[in-house]
Fold:
Amino acid sequence: MSESKGIYWLSSYPKSGNTWFRIVLARLLNTNPDLSHINDIDDILGSPIAASRTWMNKMLGFESSLLTEEETEHLRPAAYTWHAQNLQQPTYIKIHDAYTYLENNKPLIPIEGCLGAIYFVRNPLDVAISLAHHAKCPIDWSIHMMGDKQFAIPFKVNKSKQLHQRMLTWSSHVQSWVTNQPLNLLVLRYEDMLANPLESFTKAIHFLKLSKSQTEIEQAIAETSFNKLQQFEKHFGFKEKPAIEGTFFRKGIAGDWKNTLNQEQINKIIDDHGDVMKSFGYLDEQNRPV
Structure:
């Protein structure tokens, strides 16, 4: 492991491959051949999700629920900087917030103490399906949320275990991290992670400055295959799954939209996000899905 101290941000719009990457990374850092580590990801990687209210309470020293959304948001950058300054080794923090700036023009994610960020992007045609399954809502609603610039999670802020997180639209979320932020950044497409896992994960592991061999990376990928994750969740559960009935590891494929979405839904997503989709190779020059 690199001797640098600081935070690597693992960022994505929800349902874009972030959790799978964290499981493989945790396997590499934990070296436990079974899957028992997947419910200890936060401990292995050094942190829960950036918006964890429990974690934020520890950093602030008091209950964040006593504050308004705006007050908590303004304290988050300082809390992350303080956390980074007290680290003894790299920490890998999952985050779903868009890369936004506060009213004082300071970024929500501070540069101080940041070693870099990996952004996971996935075809929004497939994101809409996975998001609907995760939220237990109709696909038309998930498509609407992805096009809503005011969209944020969770819905019941004060009663939730997580802080208010600004998602913006899917396109704006992607652009906020990929084009508008000053961090050292690596972008990974979920589709490439599926099609060429060794190449994609090796690139990411090298970006994180971890000394892992190709054999170790290959083994970690094989031991955390989607089928194995599904079986583990079936028998032992997975703590990040929705609180309501359902599963977290649903299909783990690319192109499910072809069998699930109707033409009206496809057209709506392309109308909302066509420019960004095209820039990542999800549309051809005629705006047809690839």
Q: What stands out?
A: DSSP finds 13 helices and six strands in the chain. Residues 74 and 102 are 7 Å apart (CA to CA).
